[in-house]
Amino acid sequence: MNDINVNSVLMQMRALAVQAQGLPRPAETPTANFSSLMKTALDQVNAMQQNAATMAEAFERGSKEVDVAQVMVSMQKANIAFQATTQVRNRLISAYQEIMNMPV
């Protein structure tokens, strides 16, 4: 299963906050840029959606390996991941708009 690692994202956000304050970066914080984190998260959401679609197709074809509970759980996980991604996007757009509206 592909799950978004919340602890890793929080650790990176803390490192960025420390960096913004001008303090030295803690040694245990991995260095990764924002775009690679977003790409990884979007790839994981995409993989979850594709997995849910594959399981649904297998169930529709009458495969004995997939039952309805597995399909429903897979579809709900993909739905929740997509909704979370949409909320992150909305927050990013809102933050960008606030920054752009700041007086210089």
Short description:
It is built from three helices and no strands. It is mostly helical and 104 residues long. The model has no long low-confidence stretch (mean pLDDT 84).
Report what the structure shows:
It is a single chain. The chain is an all-alpha fold and 104 residues long. It has one domain. Helix content is 72%, strand content 0%. It is built from 3 helices and no strands. The protein has helices at residues 6-20, 34-60, 68-100. Helix 2 packs antiparallel against helix 3 (68-100). The termini are far apart.
Strand content: under 5%
Structural class: mainly alpha
* Tally of structural domains: 1
| Main sheet characteristics | none
- Compute the average pLDDT: 84
Key terms for this structure?
3 helices, 0% strand, 104 residues, mainly alpha, elongated
Secondary structure layout:
Elements: H1 6-20, H2 34-60, H3 68-100
Helix pairs in contact: 2-3
